[in-house]
Structures are given as structure tokens and as C-alpha cells.
Amino acid sequence: MSKKEESMMVLDPRGQPSGIFGRRTEAGDIFGGDILNPDIQPKISIDALEGLMMAPRLDSLEGKTVYLVNTGFAGGKEFMEELQEWFTKNRPEIKTELRNKQTSMFSDEPELWKEIRENGDAAIIGVGG
Amino acid sequence: MENDYSIPTAPIVTARFADYVQRDGQSHGMNLRYTFPPYPVGWVPRETLHGYVEGNDPVSGAPLMEEMLFALTQPLTEVEKHPQILKRPERPRLLEPATEADLHRLFLESGWTDGLPIVLPTEERVEEMLTGTDRDPQEIIGMMSVTTHEERLQYTVERVAVNAVMAGAKPEHLPVILAVAATGQPSMPSSTTSWGSMMMVNGPIRDEIGMNYGGAALSPFNYANAVIGRTWTLMSINFGDARLGTTFTASTGHTANYNNMCCAENEENSVWKPFNVRKGAKVGESSVSLFRGWNVLTMGIGPAQRMLNTMKGLSPFGGSFTFVIDPLVAKSLKREEGYDDPMELSKWLVEKMESRFMRPEMVNFIVVGGETNPMWVISDFMYNRTAPINPWIPKAGIRKDEQPLRMPVEVACSEGSCGISH
To answer: For chain B, which terminal residue's Cβ has fewer other Cβ atoms within 10 angstroms, N or C?
Structure first.
């Protein structure tokens, strides 16, 4: 057997799964820069992730309030304005409230989420990408 | 929103990222009810957006608005009620035996390299690499992801050594590489905006391992600069889990991703304190400083006023500037303009920029170059951190080969006798 045909063993170069995921940054991180800092970026364990649940859906949107949230990517504000116009024209029985996130798209904004919980019934959030 | 506030939510993501977020849903155990309009959404006429809203989701083919309303009102399925995460398997220490040619193909086709030829990490080579540190090979020294949200991959000293072997490095380079690895910082974080990085070494280790900080230090004329910078890239791929189209979303990408502008500071010819000392290291300590941004914006020659004029004509995305300046510039700034400390220059520049957001710490100066021209280059790189190298150096000192590999260095001919050698 020539040397070229001989089998050899090498080590795997890839990292091991850690069970730790990144997550959105805290509300105080206005510019979203902390998301790129491994020392302070908030993290969540795989066990905690598995416990997250989707919210029950609504029977109907009639008479309900839907918040339209622009996360801050380019074009998001204009897209949400178009959505709001669509609701006004096509589904006037659904009330919409448009909000632009005040922090970066990577950051938490609990005041806004609380407002939606207190005054709204559903949310449309975007536009990612 | 769904879990913490119990608000039914319809997230909207452009169709360009449909695969990305759906894979993300698998790894996070929650497949949210996305709606995908066409792309791009940014910088298009209003009537285009109107058409998106009135039209169909190009991924599902369904009317976009119907889909959005469906997402908010259709009862949850059993799968949605019981989210499960697709757990990633542990990676083996050793790969299946194969021929050299097949292993090269495996590494390339698996996306474990930067596309250039690698040195295969055999046990013997990795063992040799590990002589470059006293640390336990199985010590876990960090975790990394090029994304902001995906699972971090953790790595041992040994896995760092594997990537160092692949890059063509030697044991003498390992302490710098371990110092970078321990930051958990990928050199190419995933962003559609295409990040680049720069790394610069200070301290005695620069000369011990033969780094270039003089003429053309950022060009491919130095072995240590090349392989150390390359290893950071390979670690970002293999520990940061950079997979094109899956976790890595850069639109144009960045040529700095190949070697991360790896260099050292020309402390000997600088009139200022070494950069790492200015960032808190003790005099004589070896450190590696990391920077991140997008572009080398332009070059210039001359004094502080010209630096200011150039800055005023630029509008970097992150608001930061890092100047890479030839030692002649530092000498001139000190001698002619009285800047004993570059922080004073940073303060002056920021004051004159009259920006609400800029702070002096956002303007940094590193001294690199061979004094062939009093020039500087200005980048939009932001200073990230300075990491200590000394904890990774063996007690017996840097482990060097009997005849360390060195590329040709600039001819230093103080007595004028060397002339042209070929």
C-alpha cells in the first residue's frame, strides 16, 4: 500500500455543544452593542429554552387591538405603515396601534411589551432582514 | 412576547431569511408563525411595499395578510404546544480514519476550513502543538458563536491546538492563539453588514515569535502574522459555527476575514507607550488587542489637522475610528504638535468633530510600519479588548523549534554595506 492510500487519524476541529444560547440584550443596551460582547451578552440555557411556550391564539380579531411593532431594520417603519393602512381599509373592525422600537432591534423593551399586554390583544412584529 | 407576556405574535421576516429563521426555530424548539414578504424591504419605493402587503408570501404562496391573521387566530397544534429542541450531538475527539486525500476533501467539503490548504491535525502534530503551553489539553477555555442567538460551542485547549495545526502554526504561536480563543470573540460575527476584524500583539512575545511590526506588517511577508491571524478565522468557523447561509449571513463578506489584519505594534520606534499599556496592561506584558469594524476607509499623510479633515469627510457606521499610523507620524505628532499621549489627540479630534455620540475612547491609534512614509490609514474599526498572553506561555518560556521558521525580514543595513543582494 502506498503512503497515499494509508489511512490516518486526525482530530475533530469543531467545538462541542454547550447547551448555552445567546438571547436579546437587556433594555439598557440602547445601541444593541452588548449583543456582540461574549462577556456581557445575556444567555439562556437549553433547559430554559425548552420551557418556553407560545401564547394561546385568539378566536377572532374582531374588536381586538393589534400592535404593529417596527423593530428598526431598514424599511420596517414604512412596511408597518402599509400594514396599518391595509387594516384600516380591509379590516376596520380591528384596531391597530403602530409603535417603533426605541431601542435597537437586538434589545429588550419591556415597557413596550407591558403596554401591549395591558392595551392590546396581539402583535405583529418586523421586519426582520 | 409569546412566553413572557402571553401575547399571540406574528413575526415578519423577509423571504431571504426564511431558511435561516426556520432552522433557528428547530434549534430553539419553537417554530414561530412567520410571514415572509419579498425582499428587500429597505430602500424600496412605497408602492413596492404596498405590493408586498397586497401580494403573496413567496415562500408559502399564500396571501400575505391572510397568513398573518391566520398566525394570530389558528389554534396551536400539538407540536406547537410541546416545543422540543433538536439537540446537537457531541463531537468526537477523533474522526473516522481515512486517506490523506479523503481527509483533505472532508475538511474542505464540510466547511471546516477557509478554502486554503490546511495541515491535517494528526494526534502527533496536535501533541507537538500542545508543547506550546503548560495548560491541561482538556481544559475548557471558552465558548463562541458567530451569531447572537444560536448555541455556543465550547472548546478545550486541545481543540484550539487542532485549529492552530490546521492553520500551519507552530507551538511558539500557541500562547497568542489561546489568548484570542479565551476571549470567546469570533473574528467574523455574522451580520448582513459583513464585519471584519483586526488583531495586534504587544510585548516581548512579538520578537520571540518573529512577528512583523515594521515594513508592510499588514502584508503577507511574515509567518507568525499569517498563521496566527488565520487560526482566529478557523476558530471562528469551527468554534463560532460559521456556516454560510445557515449561521453566516454576510452579504458581501470581507477579505480581512482571511487573516484578520494580524500584526504587532512597533513599540521600538513608537514615541508613545505601547497600546496594551495604554489599555491597562503592565509594562513588559504581552497582550493581544482585538478590533472590529467594516473597512479601511482611506490613507493620509501629515498632521492632526489632516486627520481631522479626513474624519469629517467620513461617516463610519459604528462611529469609531482606529488609525494605523507609521512610527514617523507618531514622532511628528509628539515632536511638532506636542501629543505625548495619543489620548490627548483623541480628545482634540472628538472635540473638533462636534459629534454628540463620539467619545475619545472611540478614536484609537496603533503604531505599525517601516518608516518609509509618514502615512496613516484610517479605519472604522472599534477597539474591542486587550487580552493577556502571559497566562498561556509555558513556565519554561516560549517553546521554539531549534531553528524557528522565519520569512525574510527587511534588510537593516546601518553601515551601508549590504547593497542589493540579488
So the answer is: C
List the grid coordinates of A50.
425548552
Q: Is the pLDDT of residue B316 over 80?
A: no
- CA B26 to chain CA centroid, Å, is 27
- Strands (E) located in B84-166: 98-99, 140-144, 151-156
Q: What pLDDT shows up at residue B410?
A: 81
A95 at interface of B, judged by CB pairs closer than 8 A: no
Residues from chain B contacting residue A54 (CB–CB below 8 Å): 2-3, 8, 30, 32, 76, 80-81, 83
Does the beta-carbon distance from B39 to A19 stay under 8 Å?
Answer: no
Q: Which residues contact B321 (CB under 8 A, 6 or more apart)?
A: B311, B314, B362, B363, B364, B378, B379, B380, B381
Alpha-carbon gap, residue B401 to B102, rounded angstroms: 30
Which residues of chain A have a CB within 8 Å of the CB of B143?
Answer: 15, 18, 20, 38
Residue B29 and residue A16: Cβ atoms within 8 Å? no
d(CA A99, CA B389): 47
Q: Do A13 and B87 touch (CB under 8 A)?
A: no
Grid cell listed for A18: 454547550
Residues counted in chain B: 422
Interchain contact A122–B (C-beta under 8 A): yes
A30 touches chain B (CB under 8 A): no
B247 vs A106: CA distance, rounded Å: 16
Sheet holding B296-301, edge to edge: B296-301, B375-379, B321-325, B363-367
Give this complex's ipTM.
0.91
With a cut of 70, say whether residue A127 has pLDDT above it: yes
The model's pTM? 0.92
- Cβ separation A8–B122 shorter than 8 A: yes
Looking at CA atoms only, how far is residue A79 from chain B in angstroms? 6
Let me know: does B263 contact B201? Beta carbons within 8 Å. Answer: yes
Residue B141, all three cell numbers? 477555555
Please answer yes or no on whether B74 and A15 come within 8 Å at the CB atom. no
Q: How large is the average pLDDT for residues B352-359?
A: 89
Dist CA B395 CA B171 (whole Å): 14
Nearest by CB to residue A12, choosing from B4, B72, B94, is B94
pLDDT for A51 equals: 82
Rounded Cα gap, residues B399 and B342, in angstroms: 35
CA distances from A75 to A6, A72, B37, B40, B120 (A): 57, 8, 12, 8, 47
